[in-house]
Amino acid sequence: MKGRLALMIAALWWGSLTTLGFMVVPMLFAHLPTPAQAGGLAARLFSTQTWVSVGCGSLLLMIFGFNQADTSVKRSYYATALIAFAMLLALLVEFGVAPRIVARENLRFWHSAGSVLYFLQWFCSGLLLWWLARREA
Q1: SS3 for 54?
Q2: 34 CB burial (10 A radius; 0-12, 13-18, 19+)
């Protein structure tokens, strides 16, 4: 039961990152009248995504922390490390990168840094989802 719940939470996390980063935000910039409007809305959506990521990660950490039946400690450490790293990346984007973009500091650099951190978070949550799906199969 806990394995399936963890799989569903990981799928929600990865799916929300995928949908927002690769579909919604590009469509905002393609269809809203000005880049400023698209950027403002994208910033609010990315902020919301941060809290979705923190929520999903926290739930997954609780599930892995209470899973005493897992005999493979190495696997639990791997999953915990992926979750913690992905959550850290989300928080770095929210509190380290986003304020600099809003302040319009060196926009090219900070947009690139935010994109790389977002992609790494997406990759970590995808690895976690892949690993959990293999375990459930």
Answers
A1: helix
A2: exposed
